[in-house]
Structures are given as C-alpha cells and as structure tokens.
Design a protein that fits this description.
SUF_FeS_clus_asmbl_SufBD_core, Fe-S cluster assembly protein SufB, 5-stranded parallel sheet, Fe-S_cluster_assembly_SufBD, SUF_FeS_clus_asmbl_SufBD_sf, mainly beta
C-alpha cells in the first residue's frame, strides 16, 4: 500500500503476503455518507490467522464514518489477528474510523493502522480494545498539509494475564 509499505514491519509484511478479505471504501468528492458503514471480522476456528486489509479513500470535501467490529470465541489454542488499515483523507475531507475489538484471551492482536491527512483534512480514530492475550496497536496519522487535523481516542481493558500495548502516533 501507499500508506503502509509491505516492508514497514514484519506483521505488515506477513499481511501483504497472505491477506485475504477486508474492505475497500471510496467516497467521491463532496459526498457525505450519512449512515456509518460497518464491517465485522470474526475468527471462526482454532489456530487461525486472520489477515484482513482495509483501504479507505475519502476524496476532497467528503465525509465517512466506518465502524469495525472484531471478535473471537474462546478456543483451546491461540490465534493471530494481523490486520492492515490504510486511510487516505484528501483535502478538506473527514474520516472517523471506530474499532471495537472484543477478543478472547487466546488471540494475538498485532495490527498496523495508519492514515494520511491532506490540507484541511480531519482524521479521527476511535479505538476500543477489550480482551486478547496480547494487543499491540498504535493507530497513526500523518499530517501532510496545512490545517490537517488528527484526533485519537483509545481505550483498552485487560484482565489477568492479558497484555495491552496501545496508544497512537501523530
């Protein structure tokens, strides 16, 4: 991808090599999508690797709110969720990306999420992390033009034996 190169990190490289499924959203110039778009990703079997990829392009002056949910039931063995999310927010556009991840305690949740915001653009990450064995997630926003804006709200909850390494980069 143009926002996250395949060699960015080992999990992005793995995702690039084996990804299957995900979402692609293009919002034309000036279009405001009034109802949030929704996607749901679920790990449905033991010892599974899930490698979805999401690409959102919000053209000039557009708006979209994308809501993603991720879950997995409790299995006897570990699974890996290694997603890549790339968002391109063009001039004076706005994207809100909301994630609620409710993983069982045997999922390794190692994802790469990054957005670029052009002149006058706004990118908003709303990130909720519940459960998992290990979560490592730092949604990032590259502010590429004057008056580009980024906001991140990240909430994580971990129980006994769980590790949450979450935050954001701007």
């Amino acid at each position: 991808g143009s926002v996250i190169p395949p060699g960015d990190n080992k999990f992005a490289s793995l995702n690039t090599a084996v990804w299957s499924g995900g979402s692609f959203v293009y919002v034309p110039p000036g279009v405001h999508v009034e109802i949030p778009l929704q996607a749901y990703f679920r790990i449905n079997t033991e010892n599974m690797g899930q490698f979805e990829r999401t690409l959102i392009i919000a053209d000039e002056g557009s708006y979209v709110h994308y809501v993603e949910g991720c879950t997995a039931p409790i299995y006897q063995s570990d699974s890996l969720h290694s997603a890549v999310v790339e968002i391109i927010v063009k001039k004076n556009a706005r994207v809100r990306y909301t994630t609620i991840q409710n993983w069982s305690n045997n999922v390794y949740n190692l994802v790469t999420k990054r957005a670029t915001a052009a002149e006058g653009a706004t990118m908003e990450w709303v990130d909720g992390n519940i459960g998992s064995k290990v979560t490592m997630k730092y949604p990032a926003i590259y502010l590429l033009g004057e008056h580009a804006r980024g906001e991140t709200l990240s909430i994580a909850f971990a129980g006994e034996g769980q590790h949450q390494d979450a935050g954001c980069k701007m």
